[in-house]
Amino acid sequence: MHMKKKNKKLIKPTFERPVDRYFYELDQRIIPGDRIVYSVFLALLFFGVLALVWMIPFPKLALLERMNMQNFLNWGSFYIAVVIYLYLRLAPTLSYAMLFSIGIMSFLIVQLEYLERGGGPAVWSVALCLTLVGAIGLFFQARKGHQVSFQEVWRLITIGPIWLWSKVFERLKIKY
Description:
globular; mainly alpha; 176 residues
């Protein structure tokens, strides 16, 4: 990121990559002390959406059944592939960190499935509750102090997870 100066006044920063501009905009929007609250709500929302997509019934495919792999492919697999691809295009190193996070979330979703089979709550209902808590929390956090547009909230939801990882990378002095 480069700053242009004119008469000792800060004009507008220029960015080498689109992801730098997105992160700058999020940095301007979110109060540093609120970052932990955003992190919690973003994680809940992302996990909830992933679990909801994961639970959409996947068609039975003869090829997968013959290979005894019908449990390894679901709509969540496609969702993960699209998300990682989009993050890979923005910031490859951060996409690997997100893949790690998604791996942990996938493990937790499978544990929720085992819990449901043992008589626990339905995974979709847990996922829906987490999604709603995350979305409502983000909405109210984003509105705190000023009006926000739908585009700003959408950017927070979509770019927010790798933005949070960028903060970890910055603290560890790892280039992304």
